[in-house]
UniProtKB/TrEMBL annotation:
<dbReference type="InterPro" id="IPR018499">
    <property type="entry name" value="Tetraspanin/Peripherin"/>
</dbReference>
<feature type="transmembrane region" description="Helical">
    <location>
        <begin position="55"/>
        <end position="75"/>
    </location>
</feature>
<dbReference type="GO" id="GO:0005886">
    <property type="term" value="C:plasma membrane"/>
</dbReference>
<dbReference type="InterPro" id="IPR008952">
    <property type="entry name" value="Tetraspanin_EC2_sf"/>
</dbReference>
<comment type="similarity">
    <text>Belongs to the tetraspanin (TM4SF) family.</text>
</comment>
<dbReference type="InterPro" id="IPR000301">
    <property type="entry name" value="Tetraspanin_animals"/>
</dbReference>
<feature type="transmembrane region" description="Helical">
    <location>
        <begin position="87"/>
        <end position="111"/>
    </location>
</feature>
<dbReference type="InterPro" id="IPR018503">
    <property type="entry name" value="Tetraspanin_CS"/>
</dbReference>
<feature type="transmembrane region" description="Helical">
    <location>
        <begin position="12"/>
        <end position="35"/>
    </location>
</feature>
<protein>
    <recommendedName>
        <fullName>Tetraspanin</fullName>
    </recommendedName>
</protein>
<feature type="transmembrane region" description="Helical">
    <location>
        <begin position="178"/>
        <end position="204"/>
    </location>
</feature>
<keyword id="KW-0812">Transmembrane</keyword>
<dbReference type="Pfam" id="PF00335">
    <property type="entry name" value="Tetraspanin"/>
</dbReference>
<keyword id="KW-1133">Transmembrane helix</keyword>
<keyword id="KW-0472">Membrane</keyword>
Length: 211
């Protein structure tokens, strides 16, 4: 009986520590999502009336998942301390939902990378051909340090200036990799959390049967 109680306490404290780390990681995911959504450079490139919003879909998934991770981490800590099978069961169910959301965000970032870049490039090219001195075009050139397109370059470009299609690809690839790596990385950590919660639920049930 003493060994069962001692083992259960060990698992309980491990789960509590894990959930606290889990809560911190949720804060990190939420912070990354909010940064990607409200980053002045990104917003300035995608604030046009006809600008594609595909990029922000993955960002919204990341923000939602980060918020849920923080909430679930808090309830997981409460469940571990109180040794509540109900709270731990809810924690496990929520982990499954968030796991799916994080994987979806990661897969979305990787699989739709080329489409998102192509949509933004097409938006820029169309806007540039309509009016190459518009506020939107000037914003792209300033943020990306670029000018013109591959088919229609600037007449007098600066020495190290690239075409904006290349600049768009480099800029959004870096952002989309962040979404992909963060989403899949957090999903991997959640697998550990689900294992811990299952072990603790079994330990609680076994200890009550022994008692």
């Amino acid at each position: 009986m003493g060994k069962v109680e001692g083992g259960m306490k060990c698992v309980k404290y491990l789960l509590f520590v894990f959930n606290f780390i889990f809560w911190l990681m949720g804060s990190f995911v939420l912070a990354v999502g909010l940064w990607l959504r409200f980053d002045p450079e990104t917003v300035s490139l995608l604030n046009g009336d006809k600008a594609p919003d595909t990029f922000f879909i993955g960002v919204y998934i990341l923000i939602g998942a980060g918020s849920l991770v923080m909430l679930v981490g808090f309830f997981g800590c409460c469940g571990a301390v109180r040794e509540s099978q109900c709270l731990l069961g809810s924690f496990f169910a929520c982990l499954l939902i968030i796991f799916g959301a994080e994987v979806a965000a990661g897969v979305f970032g990787f699989l739709n990378k080329d489409k998102i870049v192509e949509d933004v490039q097409n938006f820029y090219t169309t806007t540039y051909n309509e009016n190459n001195n518009s506020t939107m075009i000037i914003s792209y050139q300033k943020v990306l340090n670029c000018c013109g397109t591959a088919a229609n370059p600037c007449p007098d470009p600066q020495p190290d200036t690239k075409d904006c299609e290349t600049g768009i690809k480099e800029f959004f690839n870096s952002k989309l990799y962040i979404i992909g790596y963060v989403g899949i990385g957090i999903a991997g950590v959640m697998i550990i959390g689900m294992i811990f919660s299952m072990v603790l639920c079994c330990a609680i049930r076994n200890s009550r049967e022994v008692i």
